[in-house]
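[job 0412] stage=fold_complex status=start
inputs:
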Amino acid sequence: MTSASFEQHHVDLDSGRVFYLKGGEGPPILHLHPAGGPRVTPAMAALARRHSFYIPTTPGFNGTATHPKVSSMADLADLAARFARTVIGGPCDVVAESFGGWTALWLAVRHPDLVGQLVLQAPAGLRTTGGLPADPAERLRKLYAVPERAPKETRSQEVLAENRRLYGRYTGGITLDETLQQALPRIAARTLLVFGTLDEVCPIETARRLMAGIPQSHLTYIDGAAHVPEYDQPERVARLVGAFLERGEGFLVRRADAA
Amino acid sequence: MRFSFFHLMPWTELEEAPPQWPVSNRHFDPERGKQLYDAYLDTMVFAEACGFDWVGCNEHHFSPYGLMANCNLIGAVLAQRTRSIRLAMLGNLIPLLNPIRVAEEYAMLDVMSGGRLIAGMIRGVPHEYIAYNVDPDESRGRLREAAALIVKAWTEPEPFGWEGEFYQFPSVSIWPKPLQKPHPPILMSASNEESAEFAGRHRAMMGMTLIADLGIAKRCIDVYRAAARAHGLEPTPGHILLGYNTCIAESDAEARAHLSEGLRYFHRVLMHSIRDAQRLVIQKSRFFEKEHGERFVNRLVTLKERSIDEMIEAGSVLCGSPESVVKQMRRIRDELGNGHFNINMKIGNISDAVVRRGMELFRDRVLPQAREL
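[job 0412] stage=fold_complex status=done
writing structure:
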């Protein structure tokens, strides 16, 4: 399956219009995108053979309109909850990357009834070091361990600059969300934490905070991946995340016939 | 200068060269095997009293060349029978093994010995890949990934999973963890330029053995140093360990005679079938880049065909009276800048009595001069 099977939709919620990509077949997954914006990664394309993906665009990203009443990470979590209830119809598994992981954590804290299993890939919001440099070449090097697998950028510089500005607006310019950290023990969802062994953007301190805070959490390193394992090592990510989503805690038990 | 006493634990009882590899084990007599293990362990324990800083051993399979299929078992015995000498596992052939098991066994050794482990992470010689049925083409990739996984298992405070090319583990949390922090020192082989770059890139100590030419050895050390510096380690002489077949006796003539006899058994019997197996792997795989494979084979041939005098001149062995050996060490140190010699005295079937006398001479007449090198 390729990204061609994903189609653009939109829904009008009480705070404003939300655009989203939908594709795949099977149990629904709410996917919360990173600061780079929504896209269908090779790992997601593989997982879409057995799951339906719903990928809402954060208001304001990629040239969409902002929602005047949505201005914080908690607001984004509430918006994701409204999206899940309205579009997906209720509880679902959640897969999120980096910036989207921050939203997903707040979603799991504020709306535990909506989150089935949670997969967080290098989630932002719980770090004191790391981050992305301004220089584009250096950014690319920090994001990808296998740069030739990185997606080709087709958006304008203006759109990318606005995405970055909105990232600052929603996050309030902080890198360590201490309120969220204190709330982690309230997360009921079984959580898989996915980190690249070479990730310098979201250092391992984040994983340790999450492991210490979330009662049912599993940490897995993707060897040979930096901040975006979905592109660096798509087969490994798809194999791991697929097993977790389909078998829950049973993903720990090796099965010769597992996908 | 620091010194390691290294032992291969060879089988010394063969009359004839085995016709092929692997060597038929019908020649192995367990009763004699027990005697050899006892004698060899006594010798290795004695190294501590002789002033050696490390006692070292390694892993080989399917051959009378060495009786340590798992050198960690020997390390466990040494942990109990010694007090201060460091235990150098040189090392586990980690591409062939379960890396989690290696992390656990090394951690056990480190804790049991009170933090004395030197953790060798070695790719191994080519024919070992036949023994454990691992694709030699994967040796470098497996070495890299296994080393990273072992370090992660030692240092990660929370349970973790691993998704790699060669290894997948859903949940890892080893007990015990090593005593040394952040983890035991790691040593990797650097016997060719490719390996030297790899060891430097991993900021490990480098080990080199079977030196046939000081110029080639120097190039490997230069490559190691450059790679280490590029990755944040300023290597000291102590990071550079050179392995030497060594025979120390009362006189130069006596030492030459013993070494000559021991090398005859080593090359004629112990190495005979191994050379064929190594050639096979080198020819049929990408274990080495082409030029390194040819050099590896040529180096073995060169070492086999040289006289003792030629080997001394080439800096390939340490052999002679204590005073001669100190001179030879000084020359090598001046040329290569190493801070560590790894000394193997049990060469072929040299008797244990000769080895023990050599160790006493090392203690009494070499070490007092060589320590300050």
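[job 0412] summary: The longest helix of chain A spans residues 73-88.
[job 0412] exit 0
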